Amino acid sequence: MYAVIKTGGKQYKVAAGETIKVELLSADVGAEVVLDQVLALGNGAELKVGAPLVAGASVKATVVSHGKHDKVRIFKMRRRKHYKKSQGHRQNFTELQINSVNG
Fold first, then answer.
1. Quick one: a GO cellular component term (predicted)?
2. Is residue 99 pLDDT above 90, yes or no?
3. Single pTM value for the model
4. What H or E segment, with its residue span, contains residue 58?
5. How far apart are CA 36 and CA 102, in angstroms?
6. Half-sphere exposure of 7 (CA within 13 A, CB side)
7. What burial class does residue 95 get, using C-beta atoms within 10 Å of its C-beta: 0-12 exposed, 13-18 middle, 19+ buried?
8. Domain-by-domain residue ranges, the chain?
């Protein structure tokens, strides 16, 4: 069984036993979180789509760790104008271990 969940403005397809990295959540390491914004539930060829959410569906996950992604380099330049700008960004994430998909 799998589910399509929404968290942090993004959508993820998850199944029990998977590990995913999502936008930073305010939960301690080892804590269990319940993701209740389930957009779709699937089981083999069967698919249940919500409008916009599936009623009564939830995904339980455990927080494994918090961290930062690799650095993304931003470089801007205008030719012949003596303008160069270099910048970097590292996005925070929370790693989740999916325990169960409840529908």
1. ribosome
2. yes
3. 0.85
4. strand 58-68
5. 10
6. 25
7. middle
8. 2-66+93-102
